């Protein structure tokens, strides 16, 4: 099956893919041009910036806000729920889907990674990569400077302490903190 797929199709499916592929590089170039426009819109209203987000993102709910500067790989793999908020300097490496639920609050300089690399040295040397989706539940709160690693789900209403590195799923309503993030409180 993977042999019949383009590199972009492999990427979107979470399979090993070659990031230097022409189609993938063209998509990233288009996103870079869009990011220049988006990040120049800092003084624009949140509603005006939502119009820009809708040009590139998979979904943008009413009242969703991303404060520039913002960076991502593609944009078209990102879905923002209604009232979701991302503060300044967030980075999303979105080689596969990133879903941010309604009312989620994401602090400044948070980094969300879906991009991953093979653990086997020889495979990694070949230059292939893959992605694992990230999901942030409704009303979750991610503290500033946190890093959410590939494949992680942060449950609805969960809290991630500032500066945490989240390597595993966070249950709904739980509070985690640290590096690696550990359970502090479970609702």
UniProtKB/TrEMBL annotation:
Keywords noted in UniProt: Acyltransferase, Nodulation, Repeat, Transferase
Gene3D superfamilies (alphabetical): Hexapeptide repeat proteins (2.160.10.10)
Keyword field contains rRNA processing: no
Highest rank taxon of the organism: Bacteria
Annotated ranges, domain Maltose/galactoside acetyltransferase: 8-62
GO cellular component: cytosol
InterPro entries attached to this UniProt entry: Hexapep, Hexapep_transf_CS, Hexapeptide_acetyltransf, Mac_dom, Trimer_LpxA-like_sf
SMART domains from the UniProt entry: Mac
Record SUPFAM superfamilies: Trimeric LpxA-like enzymes (SSF51161)
One Pfam family hit: Hexapep
GO molecular function, a single term: O-acyltransferase activity
Function, as annotated: Acetyltransferase implicated in the O-acetylation of Nod factors.
Family per similarity comment: Belongs to the transferase hexapeptide repeat family.
Name used for this protein in its record: Nodulation protein L
Annotated organism of origin: Enterovirga rhinocerotis
């Amino acid at each position: 099956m993977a042999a019949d797929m383009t590199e972009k199709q492999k990427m979107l499916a979470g399979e090993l893919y070659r990031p230097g592929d022409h189609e993938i590089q063209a998509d990233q170039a288009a996103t870079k041009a869009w990011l220049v426009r988006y990040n120049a819109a800092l003084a624009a209203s949140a509603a005006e910036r939502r119009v820009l987000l809708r040009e590139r993102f998979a979904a943008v709910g009413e009242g969703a806000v991303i404060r520039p500067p913002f960076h991502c790989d593609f944009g078209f793999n990102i879905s923002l729920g209604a009232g979701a908020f991302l503060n300044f300097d967030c980075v999303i490496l979105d080689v596969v889907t990133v879903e941010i639920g309604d009312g989620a609050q994401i602090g400044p300089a948070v980094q969300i990674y879906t991009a991953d690399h093979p653990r086997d040295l020889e495979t990694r040397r070949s230059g292939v990569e893959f992605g694992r989706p990230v999901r942030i539940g409704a009303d979750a709160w991610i503290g500033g400077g946190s890093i959410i690693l590939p494949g992680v789900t942060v449950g609805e209403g969960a809290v991630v302490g500032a500066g945490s590195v989240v390597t595993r799923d966070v249950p709904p309503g739980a509070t985690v903190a640290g590096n690696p993030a550990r359970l502090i409180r479970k609702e």
